[in-house]
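Need residues for this backbone.
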């Protein structure tokens, strides 16, 4: 005997006067005509049907999910299970791009963080070795980028769990955005205000306070509703734009040319452009607003916003490398860096490295019995006079008298042409000196030469 299909009436509308349900009535449906039974569903023959079975449309979703009416389909069912939500990684829905863009971005920045710190950390053999404070500043940015993208991917993945879980992960997503903004601003302030530690500390503290206030505001349940979509975006953009204030202040103090090199201003501008463009597309809901239903799965406004965030973070990472390169080539010394930029802009030297190049000679022994004046040859074969400092004997600094370690020291040597006139003979630096005194002499030499350049420019005008 063949079984007959039955359908059930909607019990939500069948109520007695006392509110009790009416007994459901089974209505038999006629069997399909002979030869018209449907064939079994095969994945390789009807893949679209499988995707439609796993997702639903906008009208059938609860009100707390209905955020963008221009995305008509591709919504996942409410699962109430983390395991079922995780399965949605492996089929297409309207959150697929949102999840995978930031999941891959977070994993990529984890690799960049370990690779960069390992290759240029204090323990490495790199030419431009970073200090521990540099590593701390880099870590602020990496934690912000990894946290922002990781929390964002988790929110979009588990948003189909339940209303309470989606709300909690949405707040975590906002915390990640604030972490990225503050974590990106801190390294730029650090490198931009190496010449003023006080202002450096003040601006970093101000960014931390502003970020904490934004997190407190974003913790509100009303903040995540569709009604506050535009104010929410404005608050985050304003927090990011507050990082422009320290840069402008640095320009007023030290000039545009110096700040351009010190904080890699070009990279920072491109990064801001990516973030602002992504925020505008996210707020205006372009392109799905003008073509509803056409961008349900691929490249709707939120997924484009995610791509812009990744592009901005990568640009900031490149700028961070430029900042470290600039300051490492100038020994993290403010006066030396400013002198190098001045020479670079006036055309005396063609690169920052050449602007701080000084001839070094390795001294094999501290105890010397050489005369006060010696005739030596330069690497080019030129005969010159060298003055040796009287305090060169013994392992002590020739300037401050600090006791030096028992290792050969680097001595910057300055030569002058052999001349009978003592006026043309310049005293050499001479003597073994500690790193602080050597750096101070180099800075002093650059500042003197910088003053000469300024005088020449003024005379030419």
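Answer:
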């Amino acid at each position: 005997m063949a079984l007959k299909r039955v359908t059930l009436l909607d019990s939500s509308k069948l109520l007695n006067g006392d509110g009790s349900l009416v007994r459901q009535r089974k209505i038999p449906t006629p069997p399909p005509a002979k030869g018209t039974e449907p064939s079994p569903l095969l994945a390789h023959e009807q893949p679209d049907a499988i995707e439609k079975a796993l997702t639903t449309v906008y009208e059938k979703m609860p009100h707390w999910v209905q955020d963008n009416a221009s995305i008509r389909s591709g919504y996942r069912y409410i699962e109430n299970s983390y395991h079922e939500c995780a399965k949605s990684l492996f089929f297409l829905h309207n959150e697929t791009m949102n999840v995978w863009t930031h999941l891959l971005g977070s994993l990529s920045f984890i690799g960049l963080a370990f690779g960069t710190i390992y290759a240029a950390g204090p323990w490495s053999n790199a030419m431009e070795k970073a200090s521990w404070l540099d590593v701390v500043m880099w870590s602020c940015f990496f934690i912000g980028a990894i946290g922002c993208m990781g929390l964002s991917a988790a929110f979009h993945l588990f948003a189909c769990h339940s209303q309470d879980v989606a709300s909690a992960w949405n707040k975590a997503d906002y915390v990640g955005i604030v972490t990225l903004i503050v974590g990106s601003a801190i390294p730029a302030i650090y490198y931009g205000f190496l010449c003023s530690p006080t202002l450096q500390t003040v601006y970093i503290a101000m960014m931390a306070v502003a970020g904490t206030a934004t997190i407190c505001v974003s913790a509100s349940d009303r903040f995540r509703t569709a009604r506050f979509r535009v104010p929410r975006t404005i608050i985050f953009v304003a927090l990011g734009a507050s990082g422009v204030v320290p840069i402008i202040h640095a320009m007023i103090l030290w000039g545009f040319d110096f700040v351009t090199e010190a904080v890699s201003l070009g990279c920072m501008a491109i990064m801001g452009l990516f973030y602002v463009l992504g925020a505008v597309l996210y707020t205006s809901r372009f392109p799905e607003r003008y073509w509803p239903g056409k961008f349900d799965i691929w490249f709707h406004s939120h997924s484009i916003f995610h791509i812009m965030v990744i592009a901005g973070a990568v640009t900031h990472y490149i700028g961070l490398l430029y900042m470290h390169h600039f300051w490492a080539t100038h020994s993290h010394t403010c006066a030396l860096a400013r002198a190098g930029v001045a020479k670079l802009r006036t055309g005396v030297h063609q690169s920052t490295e050449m602007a701080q190049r000084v001839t070094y000679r390795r001294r094999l022994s501290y105890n010397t019995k050489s005369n006060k004046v010696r005739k030596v040859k330069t690497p080019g074969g030129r005969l010159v006079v060298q003055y040796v400092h009287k305090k060169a004997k013994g392992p002590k600094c020739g300037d401050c008298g600090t006791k030096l370690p028992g290792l050969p020291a680097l001595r910057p040597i300055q030569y002058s042409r052999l001349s009978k006139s003592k006026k043309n003979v310049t005293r050499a630096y001479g003597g073994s000196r500690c790193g602080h005194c050597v750096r101070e002499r180099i800075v002093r030499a650059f500042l003197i030469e910088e003053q000469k350049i300024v005088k020449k420019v003024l005379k030419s005008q």
